[in-house]
């Protein structure tokens, strides 16, 4: 039986905050690996600035190349229609029926978790690992955690001990559009790929 972390996202582009989050989940919860899964058609996000899935996939592969426990997965890219977490978890459970799953998300996502499709079933299929943005988040996140655990008896939600990293894909795109040569918080190999193909210009 393995412990498999799951980190999904648009990764538009992937940045050091994503990598740090996967690394901390791996270390703190004794995971065997972390699947990094780019979305194709995220159901809850604006798609106006979303790069082609092949470009985002390549950036993910470049970013995680030095982390042997991180594994790229195209599971959501090969599925037709919008991306829903419940579909991904059900597919993984069929593929790895004996393994335990740890779904990694940010505090903003936990706050909106009750709006996700089949969120109660998600809580029965995976342990939730939530990253805080800052210390002020913790009391609010603890309240959300307790409410969800009260709704679903099998639910296990942990607020991760993660350092504060104020990095976002949106800010990186804005810096690139503004002509900044080296945006903060982006892996060197990913930046080189972006510059080679003039992405986000």
Summary, kept brief:
With 201 residues, this protein is of the alpha/beta class. The protein is built from 8 helices and 6 strands, in the order βαβαβαβααβαβαα.
Describe this structure in words.
This protein has 201 residues and is α/β, with parallel strands linked by helices. It has eight helices and six strands; from the N terminus they run E-H-E-H-E-H-E-H-H-E-H-E-H-H. The protein has a six-stranded parallel sheet with strand order 3-2-1-4-5-6, sandwiched between helices. Helix 2 packs antiparallel against helix 8 and helix 3 runs parallel beside helix 5. The protein is globular.
Helical residue percent? 25-40%
Shape: globular
Q: With helices defined by DSSP (H or I, 4 residues minimum), what is the helix count?
A: 8
- Kindly report the spatial arrangement of strands forming the biggest sheet: 3-2-1-4-5-6
Largest sheet: 6 strands, parallel
Classification by helices and strands: alpha/beta
For the residues shown, what is the average pLDDT?
Answer: 92
The multimeric state of the shown protein is: single chain
Low-pLDDT runs: none
Rg over alpha carbons: 17 Å
Number of strands: 6
The succession of helices and strands, N to C, reads EHEHEHEHHEHEHH
The end-to-end span amounts to: 45 Å
Portion in strands? 15-25%
Features:
alpha/beta; 201 residues; 6 strands; 40% helix; 6-stranded parallel beta sheet; globular
Summarize the helices and strands and which ones pair or pack.
Layout: E1 3-9, H1 16-28, E2 33-38, H2 53-63, E3 70-72, H3 85-95, E4 100-106, H4 107-111, H5 119-125, E5 127-131, H6 137-151, E6 157-160, H7 169-177, H8 188-196
Parallel strand pairs: 1-2, 1-4, 2-3, 4-5, 5-6
Helix pairs in contact: 2-8, 3-5
């Amino acid at each position: 039986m393995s412990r498999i972390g799951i980190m999904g996202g648009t990764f538009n582009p992937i940045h050091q905050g994503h990598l740090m989050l996967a690394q901390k989940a791996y270390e703190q919860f004794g995971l065997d690996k972390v699947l990094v899964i780019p979305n194709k058609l995220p159901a809850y996000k604006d798609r106006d600035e979303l790069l082609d899935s092949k470009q985002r996939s390549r950036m993910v592969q470049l970013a995680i190349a030095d982390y042997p426990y991180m594994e790229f997965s195209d599971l959501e890219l090969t599925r037709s229609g919008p991306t829903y977490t419940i579909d991904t978890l059900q597919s993984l459970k069929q593929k790895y029926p004996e393994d335990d799953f740890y779904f990694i998300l940010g505090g903003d996502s936990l706050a909106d978790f009750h709006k996700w499709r089949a969120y109660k079933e998600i809580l029965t299929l995976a342990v939730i690992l939530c990253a805080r943005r800052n210390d002020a988040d913790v009391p609010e996140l603890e309240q959300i955690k307790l409410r969800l655990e009260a709704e679903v008896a099998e639910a296990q939600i942990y607020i991760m001990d993660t350092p504060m990293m104020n990095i976002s894909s949106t800010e990186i795109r804005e810096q690139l559009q503004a002509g900044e040569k080296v945006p903060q918080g982006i892996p060197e190999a990913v930046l080189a790929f972006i510059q080679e193909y003039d992405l986000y210009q």
